[in-house]
Amino acid sequence: MKILARQLTFDLYNCKNSKLREMDEVKAMLQGVLLETGCALINTEARSLSQEHFVLVALFEEGHILLHVYPAMRYVAGDIFLCTENAAPEEFFKGLRRFFQPDKTKTTFFKRGNFQANTEIKPKTKTRVAPLRKIHNTGAKVIRILARRNRQ
After folding, report:
1. Where are the domains of the chain?
2. Which of 87, 91, 106, 133 is deepest in the core (most CB within 10 A)?
């Protein structure tokens, strides 16, 4: 199988970082992530598309990163495209996730450029769920409700 590139698409839900509203702060973080990973940065661009939405793109020799940021919703959608067969977009994603601090992430990995005939390509999807303490707290609430019903 000949792979030309790897792509990671992601959704970050309920982001905690208060700097989410600051387009320049997000742009600086994106440039920092690229420096950490040793990429040859060509250009970064940030544009406000509306009061509720801005977009950032970083173009570098190895690929690109695109972010759509919705501060009021505390939501970020994006993709990381790396133009080599053995690329690791997860390394870039770790830095983004560390900055935005989401409660929940949804990621999809793609191997791009599979030129073998008759090969079905299925994306690998991995979803992270909210921290377990929230699940535990919800479970405790359910138990209290059930206990009240049993007493009645």
Report:
1. 5-151
2. 87
* pTM of the full structure: 0.74
Q: Look at residue 132 and tell me whether its pLDDT is greater than 50.
A: no
- Give dist(CA 39, CA 81) in Å, integer: 13
Tokens standing for residue 100: 């935005």
Residues forming beta bridges with residue 130, ordered by sequence position: none
Tokens of 88: 């690791």
The DSSP bridge partners found for residue 4 are: none
Q: In the chain, where do the E strands start and end?
A: 5-13, 41-50, 53-60, 63-70, 75-82, 104-112, 124-128
pLDDT digits (tens, 9 = 90+) for 39-80: 888 999 999 998 899 999 999 988 999 999 999 999 999 999
Range 45-79 burial, b when 16+ CB lie within 10 A, else e: ebeeeeeeebbbbbebebbbbebbbebeebbbbbb
**Which superfamily does 5-151 belong to?**
S-adenosylmethionine decarboxylase (3.60.90.10)
